[in-house]
Amino acid sequence: MVNRKDLDPEESPAAEFGVLLRRLRDERGWTQDDLGVRMRISGTHISAVETNRRPPTPQFARSADRALGTGDLLTRKVRAVRNTSLLEGFPEFVKQEIRAAELRLFELGIIPGLLQTPEYAAAITQGAVRRGAISEQQAEERLTLLAKRQTSLVRDPAPIVHVVLDESCLRRLVGGPHVMSAQLESIVAFGELPNTVLQVAPYDLGERRSFDLPIHLLTLPERTFLAYSESAQQGMLERDYTAVQPLLTAYHQLQAEALSQTASMAMIEQVRKGIS
């Protein structure tokens, strides 16, 4: 079969669902269009779910179970997909992040995941557990994925990483003074690496700050560009260069307005000494 995408069921619960759906369809000798006709949706929709470009809904799973005669197999599987703490688009973003040649990050309020120490990351996830926002299992899922993402920074060749931190990332005390002091010390060490550029966007930047939400911009080895942004409840992965290009321009403007790396390091050290 031409252009048949390989699937990795361990990528995420949604990917595992897609692999199972494809296997069940293949066992019956049906094309995506064949299954789509039986479910009264398009074959393109089936393809998007199978290849983890579109998350399956409970309604989709029930309809697929009826069409495939699989009882409630897919309906039960979709509960694992719905139970994940990862926002839509994020698993695919991570897949691209670990092979990117260049990364550009902007973060508000908390240190970006790629730069978090294990203690800082644990404090953030446990805070979410205590609020009831995620379960203990989901917290473990987040921490495991974060550790996997961080290994991508030490590959060979190492990616070029640009980071702009809003000043709020430094001022918000997470995990207590000891954890926060160690986190800031780790950031300074990160900024001293030859493949990194680290800057702080101070509070007095005011309306000149380009972004009001966190943003991740990737340059892939083939020189294509991706953008990932998220709110509290939704993540969005953008591949269209006409949509990504204005974000790249805004990021460059932010870097021009932010403190220099030398001044940024001085601010981080000043904050760290103030909480030690």
TrEMBL record:
SUPFAM superfamilies: lambda repressor-like DNA-binding domains. Pfam families: DUF5753, HTH_31. Gene3D superfamilies: lambda repressor-like DNA-binding domains. Residues 21-74 form the HTH cro/C1-type domain. It comes from the Bacteria. SMART domains: HTH_XRE (SM00530). InterPro entries: Cro/C1-type_HTH, DUF5753, Lambda_DNA-bd_dom_sf. One of its GO terms (molecular function) is DNA binding. This is Helix-turn-helix domain-containing protein. It comes from Streptomyces odorifer.
